[in-house]
């Protein structure tokens, strides 16, 4: 897709259950092509729903638009990104996510959540560190089995590379959350959860898979014998393994750290976003 000029860059999220005030997507479309992705039914993707994963349009003016709207971000939390992955391969060339982060760095009361499947996030490691405790990075790792990933997220980075990214981010002092979302077929739940903990991540959450109406992904699950991922008991078993690996720590009542140490959550308050997006 040709680069384009966006008309807006901040999408206000009125529903407080999502846990952030604005979503920011520097690209339209997504090259990762996750087979379950619902974004292909978003209005801005409807002109090419069947080719989802095959096109990405950089929003060339995203940093400038963000700069012009920075007055909205006082004491706000920004989620990057809700309808794409901010670290598309094209980010190497366009650096739009980086330039948006540079704007956000200049908004001292703004908190930022970067959510990605890509180790490309490491190219901005120093910039991410500069945010201190007002930024966290979520890495989506929905399975411990890269052969599952190859079927379900065919163009997204391999699982081992995501673990490596989590480790480097955590070692750099950045708060890392592992998002097991949407939950896919898992080889060994306990080993998976221990691997997440060993990465240095301080949080983890498990989000269930939700299918669109007459979603072709249902057939894919059936063909591979993975329909169990739709079973609430299956999800509960994975969640229990993560709870064991990330035990909640008691903390003094008055202490309210921005990043809660070592917890695993199901994020029931955030069903739409965190169950389904990149
Ligand atoms: S789920 Fe996220 S990373 Fe995957 S294709 Fe959709 S937007 Fe991209």
Give a description of the structure.
By secondary structure, this protein is of the alpha/beta class. It has one domain (10-276): pyruvate-formate lyase- activating enzyme. Helix content is 31%, strand content 15%. The strands form two sheets. The chain has an eight-stranded mixed β-sheet, with helices on one face. Helix 4 (125-130) links the parallel strand 6 and strand 7. Helix 1 packs parallel to helix 3 (96-105) and helix 7 (189-198) packs parallel to helix 9 (232-245). It is globular, with a radius of gyration of 18 Å. It starts with 9 loop residues before the first strand and ends with a helix. It binds iron/sulfur cluster. The site of iron/sulfur cluster (SF4) has 12 residues, from loops.
Task: Please outline the helices and strands.
Elements: E1 10-12, E2 22-24, E3 27-29, E4 56-58, H1 62-68, E5 77-80, H2 91-94, H3 96-105, E6 111-116, H4 125-130, E7 135-140, H5 146-152, H6 159-171, E8 175-180, H7 189-198, E9 203-206, H8 216-224, H9 232-245, E10 263-265, H10 271-276
Parallel strand pairs: 2-5, 5-6, 6-7, 7-8, 8-9, 9-10
Antiparallel strand pairs: 1-2, 3-4
The structure holds iron/sulfur cluster.
Residues 30, 32-34, 37, 39, 53, 84-85, 117, 277-278 line the site of iron/sulfur cluster.
């Amino acid at each position: 897709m040709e680069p384009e000029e966006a008309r807006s860059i901040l999408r206000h999220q009125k529903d407080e259950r999502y846990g952030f005030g604005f979503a920011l997507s520097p690209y339209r479309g997504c090259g990762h092509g996750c087979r379950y992705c619902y974004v292909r039914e978003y209005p801005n993707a409807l002109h090419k729903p069947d080719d989802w994963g095959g096109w990405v349009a950089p929003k060339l003016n995203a940093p400038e638009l963000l700069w012009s709207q920075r007055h909205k971000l006082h004491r706000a939390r920004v989620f990057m990104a809700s309808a794409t992955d901010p670290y598309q391969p094209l980010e190497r060339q366009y650096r739009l996510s980086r330039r948006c982060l540079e704007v956000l760095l200049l908004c001292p009361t703004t908190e930022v959540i970067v959510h990605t499947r890509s180790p490309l996030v490491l190219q901005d490691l120093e910039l991410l560190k500069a945010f201190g405790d007002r930024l966290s990075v979520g890495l989506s790792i929905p399975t411990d089995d890269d052969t599952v990933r190859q079927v379900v997220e065919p163009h997204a980075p391999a699982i081992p590379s995501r673990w490596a990214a989590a480790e480097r981010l955590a070692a750099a002092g950045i708060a890392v959350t592992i998002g097991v979302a949407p939950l896919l077929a898992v080889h060994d739940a306990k080993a998976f959860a221990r691997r997440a903990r060993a990465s240095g991540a301080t949080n983890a959450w498990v989000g269930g898979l939700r299918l669109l109406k007459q979603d072709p992904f249902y057939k894919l699950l059936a063909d591979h014998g993975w329909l169990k991922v739709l079973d609430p008991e299956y999800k509960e078993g994975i969640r229990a393994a993560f709870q064991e690996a990330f035990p909640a720590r008691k903390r003094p009542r008055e202490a309210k750290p921005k990043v809660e140490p070592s917890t695993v959550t199901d994020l029931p308050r955030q069903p739409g976003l965190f169950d389904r997006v990149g």
